[in-house]
Structures are given as structure tokens and as C-alpha cells.
Amino acid sequence: MAFRDKKFIAYQNQIIGIHAPQSQISELRELYDNIRLNHDTYRFFCTMHSVRSLVSMATSILKQDIDLLPYPEDIRKLSFSFWEEALREDILKYMTKYIRLGQDSELLTKAANLEDLRDYSRMFLRMLGSIYDNLQASDPVFLNGLTCQPFYFGERPNFSWLEEQTEDALQKLIYDDEKYECLRTIRVLRFYSENFLLLIKPDRLRYWIRSTAIRDADETLIDLRRQGY
Amino acid sequence: MDRGRTEGQSIGQITSGINQGNTLALKTIDFVRRQLPAWRDDSDRPDERSENKLNMQLCKFLDSYARNNFPMVRFDHEEYQAGHRSVDFSASPVKTTVIGVRQYTIYDPILVLECKRLPAPPPQDREREYVTGGIERKSGGFSDLNWDFMAQIWI
């Protein structure tokens, strides 16, 4: 994306130009600045709505997609809440590649590391902590191919027993290969006891990005309501 | 290996650490209560006297503010009840949830709120009716309101 206010410019049909007479140059500059400032948001809109991007082409979009971009008089109306921003960033950073590359995408080739788990926990706590304000996260436990993220309400429990448990039972709980021959079901396990909650899932990054934390917070809220809280 | 079907499953029960039952509904009431002064003093808010318009303003304010500060719940104006009744606005979960034996959906709130304007327009004894009527409706005088929690806001 570039702004040009001097001399003639020619370009091919895959480039879109927005022209204004010299008398409206300040408005054109404002338009350019606003689009540049909200570039990620506009990319997100194109990714979600384009009939070409991620459909017939990987990243290419149509002029029609540009025409449909929102441009409110008060540009602040484009602002997202913190969790909407997380969804936008995950879609742009991970989901587009996941759709294009599948098994070869970062979401499936990379195991979530400590920093990924910290981001996940922060998002989970910010969502669910708005209601259960004494909810806190403990350090994640990395098992063989599985990751367990503990949370607790109030006083910190002793989680040392977690690393002593045999992993086979957990593997069987998470990967259900017995129910159907041709379909592998992967469970996201939420285990509640006393004042703690364990989230146990495969270690792939796909299960531990912030947008997944939002969904897990929703589902945990359902569980807690069912339990009378 | 990770492109199979994914399903969530929960086991067990929290037995300590959360001190209050029905925390979601009570926290929602607390959230609404804490936002009332900010809504009253909002300089962008047009001056209105009509109870319906005030209700709508408050509902929009709460829903907008909740996006960032109370993200598990959203607010809707004019929640219809059985028959011709409606409550002024409601708080709903952001996705389908089963609570007790009942399935709550995004169309099915977990808390309803009624707003009453003060001072009450004539006849003046309405203020008494606000209290007694509200309590009667909740306590079974009007059995069509089948809610565990109901809040009344005086604006």
C-alpha cells in the first residue's frame, strides 16, 4: 500500500487505485492513514468476506472486497475489544495458514511452549476471571504429547502429583480410537476437583492459542453454572 | 494426527474455592450496579425522560461496556416473556449452555432486569407498586416469570 501525490502513475489491473482531485488531497491522505493504521482489521475483513482469498487463491482479493470494506465516519468504531483482537490476530497469523497448509501449518507442526501457554492462560483468566475473580493459573505440565494447564480458585493447591501420574490413562481419555474405526476423536478434557480445574489437551499449538482460550472459557463457564456457580 | 474430530468433556466437580452459589447471575447484577453512575454521567448520552428510551440507552451502554470488561455476558433490550409480558432487558450467555435440567441459548437469558423511573410519573403511589409488584411477580404472584433471578433498577 502506498500514497502518491505527485506526477502520473500507471499500474496493472491487479492493483487498485483510489484517486482524488488536488483540492481533496487532505481527505485522501486521511483515508490512506486510516487504512494503514487499521491495516490488520481490513486484512481480517478481507479474509473473512472475500470470495477469492482462501477460496480460489491463497491471499489474493478482488476489487469488490475493497469496495465492501467498512469506513465509518468515526474511525474509532472499527476498534475491537481485547478478545476480538485476539480472534483477529489468530485468524491472520494462524488460521489462514491452517486452511492453506493443513498438516504442515504451524498450528499442527509446533508444540505449544511455555510462552504460548502463558498467553493462553492470560486470555482464559481475563475472560473467566471477570466472573470468578479468585481464579488463578498454575504452571503448565508437559506430559508426553499432552499438555495440562491447571487453574485454581483461591488458595493454590499442590499439583506435584500431576507429574507422577501415568500418562497412558490420560492418552486414552484424550484420544478415543475405540469408538469408531475410521474416525479419531480428540477430547479436550476439563477435570474439576476440590478448588482446581485441569485442562488437558494434545500439546499441538492449535489447542493452546488465545482464540481457543476464549472457547474454553465459554465451555468452562457452562460447566461451572451447571455445578451451581 | 490432529485433524480428527474434537469434542469437549468435563469430569468432576468444584467443591471449594468459589464461595458463592449462582456467581454468574450475582456478578452480572453487581456489574450492572457498578456501571449505573458511569451511564448516568456519560457526556455522550442524550437527555431523555421516557422510561423506554432510558432503558434502551442503559442496555446499549451495558452491552458496549461489557464487551471489554464483562465479556462472558451480553445484554438485550425488551426480553419478551410468556403472553404479552416483557422485561426491560436481559443478560444472556454468549453461547448455548445447559444449566440444571434446562438448556439456555443465546435467546434464553440467565437474568432479566426491570427498570423503573424515579421520581415515578403520576399517580405517585407507583413507587410503592414498583416494590410490592416486583416482589409479587418474582415470588409467584405472576407465575409466567420463571426465573431464578430477577433484578429491578430504579433510574
Describe this structure in words.
The complex is a heterodimer of chains A (229) and B (155). Chain A is of the alpha+beta class. Chain A starts with 24 loop residues before the first helix and ends with a helix. In chain A, helix 2 crosses helix 4 and helix 6 crosses helix 9. Chain A is elongated. In chain A, strands 1, 2, 3, 4, 5 and 6 form a 6-stranded antiparallel sheet that branches. Helices cover 42% and strands 14% of the residues of chain A. In chain A, strand 5 and strand 6 form a beta hairpin. Chain A contains 9 helices and 6 strands, in the order H-H-H-H-H-H-E-E-E-H-H-E-E-E-H. Chain B is an alpha+beta fold and 155 residues long. Chain B has 3 helices and 7 strands. In chain B, strands 2-3-6-7 form a 4-stranded mixed sheet, sandwiched between helices. The longest helix of chain B is centred in the middle third of the chain and has 19 residues. Chain B is globular. Chains A and B meet through helix 4, helix 6, strand 5, strand 6 and helix 9 of A and strand 1, helix 1, helix 2 and strand 4 of B. Strand 5 of chain A pairs parallel with strand 1 of chain B.
What tags apply to this protein structure?
heterodimer; A: 229 residues; alpha+beta; six-stranded antiparallel sheet; 9 helices; 42% helix; 14% strand; B: 155 residues; four-stranded mixed sheet; two-stranded antiparallel ribbon; 3 helices; 34% helix; 26% strand
- The quaternary state of the protein chains shown equals heterodimer
Tell how many strands the DSSP assignment of chain A holds: 6
Helical stretch tally of chain A:
9
User: How much is the radius of gyration of chain A in Å?
Assistant: 23 Å
C-alpha termini separation of chain B? 57 Å
Helix content of chain A: 40-55%
Estimated radius of gyration of chain B: 18 Å
Mean pLDDT of chain A: 89
What spatial order of strands do you see in the largest sheet of chain B?
Answer: 2-3-6-7
